[in-house]
Design a protein that fits this description.
This protein has 2 domains: 47 residues, Ubiquitin-associated (UBA) domain (Helicase, Ruva Protein, domain 3), CATH 1.10.8.10; 105 residues, Elongation factor Ts, dimerisation domain (Tetrahydropterin Synthase, Chain A), CATH 3.30.479.20. It has 7 helices and 5 strands; from the N terminus they run αααββαααββαβ. The longest helix is centred in the N-terminal third of the chain and has 19 residues.
Length: 168
């Protein structure tokens, strides 16, 4: 199969950025004439569409993840759910749960979604799913979840979280 304007380096870079398979990355790049940024946006849109399609599926599996910050003064616990135990055991899902627990410890969200917050509060400050991701502030937590949904092809949701701070 002729890859046309698609280079192996571009496929590798897109794969590293998205975590998707080689063929998905190659196809997206071929459709975008090798333009990495357009292919990335296209794959992101595809992931959002997939997440919306799967949003009504039952979340019967998952895991509880904890994060204790160095020094043991701050900790967080989150329950992240998915559809099957198979996905709950994948490295992508475990990494997502860990990153969300770390986010809770670092940013101390008060609500899960903007719909739960009082209208006078900035959702990016107080709502977990709307907060900028501490590892990449260009994306919020909901964006990170959507990316993992696209990779594992299952619905994922955060059910609950709590944060502990010594003396607070």
């Amino acid at each position: 199969m002729d890859s046309g304007p698609v280079s192996l380096d571009a496929i590798k870079e897109l794969r590293e950025k998205t975590g998707l398979g080689i063929m998905d990355c190659k196809k997206a790049l071929a459709e975008c004439n090798g333009n990495l940024e357009i292919a990335l946006e296209k794959l992101k849109a595809k992931g959002v569409a997939l997440a919306e399609k799967k949003a009504q599926r039952t979340l019967a599996a998952g895991l509880i993840e904890t994060y204790v910050h160095a020094g043991g003064r701050v900790a967080a616990m989150v329950e992240v759910n998915c559809e099957t135990d198979f996905v709950a055991r994948t490295p992508e899902f475990k990494t997502l749960a860990h990153d969300i627990a770390m986010q809770v410890a670092a940013m101390n969200p008060q609500f899960l979604t903007p719909q739960e917050a009082p209208p006078d509060k900035n959702p990016q400050e107080v709502c977990l799913l709307a907060q900028p991701f501490i590892k990449d502030p260009r994306r919020n937590i909901q964006d990170i979840i959507v990316e993992v949904v696209a990779k594992v092809r299952e619905n994922i949701g955060v059910r609950r979280f709590c944060r502990f701070e010594l003396g607070a």
